[in-house]
Design a protein that fits this description.
single chain, alpha+beta, 8-stranded mixed beta sheet, 5-stranded antiparallel beta sheet, 12 helices, globular, binds flavin-adenine dinucleotide
């Protein structure tokens, strides 16, 4: 039986990101993916929020996405736009890029890292014991792994087979989505009526002065809210009827590339770990696509889990480190679910909801609420509860321009190798991390600029910070003592080599 330290079921955005993280950490990882190629049927996610672009920047691959996508102030809450152009990040925008391109770019990165992918095969079941997991594949073969991670989407077989509950809310609304050809010129843009919100747009577009400008020709992406929650597999005649009901014509639709449906089903796995089996991405949480949070949350789950799982596999951490994955990421997705439900409720089309939506939009046009919601929707305000202390503790490390003895250096460049960093900003050699030097990069640097966090504002400059491989701050030095440092290093990166 072929063995791997970690087997990932599902090579969508979450599984690919996790595989890259594990490979960077030197873990023998493999993906099992049902699809024979990375080709994706359906449009799904339309882009990356600011924090996800930062995550890619932390690994040195942001340019691959930026060079293919279009940046815009496209974050919003229900219909209220949220401008984040004044945010302290190198990426204060949304990057418009369809999921098939995001997956292709991630698959290219994972390919360079030489992650084996068992394509065209499904995980059909598994059995776990005290030392590992036997993973059954649809071709009759089995794989043996120390850990199995279900990144296999909302209908996750791994979640079901692990017996993990998926509590939440049934759908209240559904929409048909499709990519089709039209013989007549459609009314491009968004339309609201008594049924709900509908949209027609060409697949090809550019963003000029913040406005979407569609190509003159080419295939059309259709989104039609249905009068009742649909349950059967939709086809071209359903789409034609829907278009006629809303626009009075079906614009001569033909040659669909795909037709599918999404709903606002909202559910979250009760636990992200069942012994040697973990869940990430849609396998752990599903919700309406409003606000564009799903792929972003999944990719960030992967970056939280990857380095922790690597340490456990390398036996440099106890298994209990994996419980911090649930402790940190479950609340993040729980908040996404609630805020997404709120947006779906605000998108209803009756007069009272419209009045409520206008009221919320008015509130969100004020500076403080705008900043808070923009920080939330962009993922820049994510805060892991690592205890009381400096505002940086548990928050993302900003990508500062440092000066080192070897010249200028960006913080994110230090994270390309996905290893922790102890950044000393005081006297060179002022912090003694030597007993952890085999695991932690020790960097002496200077930074004279402001320390500003999204939505929080300017914070006092620390004398040192301990940055985890996922870019979150695990310890902040506020004076010349090393109070709490040894404890933080031990908690996250194991006992000192001198111990
Ligand atoms: C209409 C729509 C619009 C959306 N818009 C946005 C948006 O703007 N922004 C955003 O962030 N998100 C958006 N999303 C959500 C986003 O598409 C998902 O959150 C994202 O795809 C989740 O990634 P994943 O890797 O966790 O799961 P998936 O993308 O579902 O990938 C799961 C993978 O596992 C494979 N698989 C499944 N079962 C097995 C098995 N048993 N064995 C092996 N392989 C298996 C599948 O083939 C698939 O490749 C949207 C979704 C929809 C439907």
């Amino acid at each position: 039986m072929t063995e791997h330290a970690v087997v990932i079921a599902g090579g969508g955005p979450t599984g690919l990101m996790l595989a890259g993280e594990l490979m960077l950490a030197g873990v023998d990882v493999a993906i099992v993916e049902r699809r024979a190629s990375q080709e994706l049927i359906g449009s799904r996610a339309g882009g990356l929020h600011s924090r996800s672009i930062e995550i890619m920047d932390q690994r040195g691959i942001a340019d691959r996405f930026l060079s293919e996508g279009q940046v815009a102030q496209a974050a919003g809450f229900a219909s209220a736009p949220l401008d984040l152009s004044d945010f302290p990040t190198r990426h204060p925008y949304v990057l418009g890029l369809w999921q098939n391109h995001i997956e292709r770019i991630l698959a290219g990165w994972v390919g360079e890292l030489a992650v084996p992918i068992y394509r065209g095969r499904e995980v059909t079941g598994f059995a776990q014991d005290d030392t590992g997991v036997d993973v059954q594949l649809s071709d009759g073969e089995s794989l043996r792994a120390e850990y199995l991670v279900g990144c296999d989407g909302g209908r996750s077989l791994i979640r079901k087979a692990a017996g993990i509950e998926f509590p939440g809310w049934d759908p209240t609304t559904s929409s048909l989505i499709a990519e089709v050809e039209m013989t007549e010129e459609p009314e491009l843009g968004i339309r609201r009526d008594a049924i709900g919100v509908h949209a027609l747009g060409r697949e090809e577009y550019t963003i000029i002065d913040g406005e979407i400008v569609y190509a003159d020709s080419g295939s059309v992406r259709v989104m039609l809210t249905e009068p009742h929650v649909g349950t059967t597999e939709p086809d071209l005649s359903d789409l034609s009827e829907g278009l006629v009901a809303v626009y009075g014509t079906d614009y001569g639709i033909h040659s669909p590339a795909w037709i599918t449906r999404f709903t606002d089903t909202t559910r979250q796995a009760a636990t992200y770990r069942a012994r040697r089996v973990l869940l990430a991405g849609d396998a752990a949480h599903v919700h309406s696509p409003v606000g564009g949070q799903g792929l972003n949350t999944g990719v960030q789950d992967a970056v939280n889990l990857g380095w922790k799982l690597a340490r456990v596999v390398h036996r440099t951490a106890q298994e209990s480190l994996l419980d911090t994955y649930h402790a940190e990421r479950h609340p993040v997705a729980a908040r996404v679910l609630r805020k997404t439900m709120a947006q779906v409720a605000l998108m209803r089309v009756d007069d009272r909801t419209e009045a409520l939506r206008d009221t919320v939009s008015e509130l969100l046009s004020m500076d403080e609420p705008r900043k808070r919601f923009a920080a939330m929707m962009s993922g820049l305000d994510i805060h892991y509860d690592l205890g009381e202390g400096h505002p940086l503790l548990g928050r993302r490390m900003p990508d500062l321009d440092l000066v080192t003895a070897d010249g200028p250096l960006r913080v994110f460049t230090l994270l390309h190798v996905a290893r922790p960093v102890l950044l000393n900003l005081g006297e060179p050699g002022g912090f003694d991390g030597t007993p952890w030097a085999d695991r932690v990069q020790l960097i002496d640097a200077k930074y004279d600029g402001m320390w500003e966090l999204p939505a929080i504002g300017v914070v006092t400059a620390p004398t040192a910070v301990l940055i985890r491989p996922d870019g979150y701050v695990a310890w902040v030095g506020e004076d010349l003592t090393q109070r709490g440092l040894a404890n933080a290093l031990t908690t996250w990166f194991g006992p000192s080599s001198a111990a």
